[in-house]
Amino acid sequence: MKLKILSSIVFFLVLESLYSQNVNIYSDFPTGNILIEKIKNDSIWVRPDLRDTEGDWFYWCFAVDNAKGKTLSFLLPNLNKLTAKGPAVSYDSGYTWEWLFPDTLSFRSESFQFSFESNKEVRFSMGMPYSQSRFQTFIEKYSSNPSLSLDTLTLTEENRPIEKVIIRPKNKAEYKVLITARHHACEMMANYVIEGMIDEILMNKKLGSNIEYCFIPFIDIDGVENGDQGKNRLPRDHNRDYSGEAVYNSTIKLKEWFPEWSQNMTTICIDIHCPWIRGDGNEHIYLPGSQFSEMAEEQSKFSRHLTQTNSGELKVSNNLIYPFGYGWNTHQNNSKGFSFSKWVSTFEHVKLGTSIEFPYGVNVKQTITQQNASNFGRDFIKAVNEYLYNE
Ligand SMILES: [Zn+2]
Known about the structure:
This protein has 2 domains: 17-125, Immunoglobulin-like (Sandwich), CATH 2.60.40.3120; 132-389, Zn peptidases (Aminopeptidase, 3-Layer(aba) Sandwich). 22% of the residues lie in helices and 23% in strands. The protein is built from 7 helices and 19 strands. Helix 2 packs across helix 7 (370-389) and helix 5 crosses helix 7. The structure holds zinc ion (ZN). The site of zinc ion (ZN) has 5 residues, from loops. Zinc ion is lined by residues 184, 187, 231, 239, 273.
């Protein structure tokens, strides 16, 4: 059996019936992440490679090929490594994804089975991985659009450019809107939302003509491409790197660049995240309420607009704001450093600085897809415009 595993340690390999067929299981591609613990007959025990993560997390993504006619069982270490829709599956090298159990209300298992109809590659993941190359494909369609320009914030520790997409208005800019994602590398659903936002800005002629937008779609691009968890990364989580001395090239540069770029204009900053993998509190879209009461009030105003512009398939719930002081959203959550949204909220010209949590698989019993996530981004940008112009 040929196994291409660059991820790390392989604990036990018991090569039995897979041996004769040369089934390949691998993760040596951008966004790949898996550790194979054991193979016995047609059962494969796998688990996420946590690398430099403090504690447990749930991101994994691997590919299988040369498995025609096989029904393989993939066993994960516990119930919290699959969403309520099971794993996502891709037949085109991770460009399009679908849930294995889109119609199941709440798939709950430590394992899943898959029957391979051909020898072609099939990818599996806990979510719908979104890499740099997908973003390149997306943004290329706007390459001749004069209002859009691509720039680099800085280079990462592994020498990758951190891209900025600037969309300039027809008229003189009076407002600035900064949208960031992937402070936590694994939280890929954010990028589908960003695609919809950019589409809406460039295609909807009715939007405000005085807003300059900047998108930074991959704050931790090294983590994204390497298939890291990113969340609770050691020595520091990228989204706790906004107080004291920043340790990452991205956060060091962002802290320097942001005041120069925003120039004391009225500014909105939205940092898109994904919550935990499944269950109550993690299966609806929400804004974690700000600890600053004035900012919490702005979040409320914005969320009223979002409720109004929410015409797409994914509907926001009445619990759109998760108030400060509840559950995990307390001062304790800042103990390891300021988040991006807390940091930007300390600037007087930032009218709204918030993160938003966009789930992996389920939004209020609705199944999340690449398309409806993107459409939610369109609703969101309309709400940003309503909030700026009609407040
Ligand atoms: Zn996050």
